[in-house]
Amino acid sequence: xxxxxxxxxxxxxxxxxxxxxxxxxxxxxxxxxxxxxxxxxxxxxxxxxxxxxxxxxxxxxxxxxxxxxxxxxxxxxxxxxxxxxxxxxxxxxxxxxxxxxxxxxxxxxxxxxxxxxxxxxxxxxxxxxxxxxxxxxxxxxxxxxxxxxxxxxxxxxxxxxxxxxxxxxxxxxxxxxxxxxxxxxxxxxxxxxxxxxxxxxxxxxxxxxxxx
Length: 212
Description:
By secondary structure, the chain is of the alpha+beta class. It is about 25% helix and about 25% strand. About 25% of the residues are buried.
């Protein structure tokens, strides 16, 4: 329950909220937005997101202002970036209007988890777009699922806007030139885990990938 949260002590991670919103793309069109309390996705074992990295995502925050109002930060810009990322992976992205509507619905459905003003915390939204049609062979999917879920979070860097220690990575690259580096896709993050783990274990806050 949100009443049990210590807003000022929140880290940047997943905390269960009440609802998430979903929308499916089938037969060449987006369907109706639905709301669910389930944290799980029924999925075919041959879904393209599982085998061929057919996945893009975004991250944005909702803040409660000093006036009590709740504001989403630059949701339209996140929608445009998702469209650009999806286009590169030959995926069907939701329109800017559908993206924003789903984000707003998710915020309203989880209003109890929006941190109070002045706590330094916010409600983080994770819009996720995945290919769900069954394929064996690298090809674009015909069906997609868009999900927006929410979790209350503290600052990404606990110390705020202060200098941080950065690990210089010479042996691994996060995204090769002319690849998916300009797109917000899961594969880029998978490529960074080995460097991030090494940096964390050695006490660094971030990684700067150089040309290996």
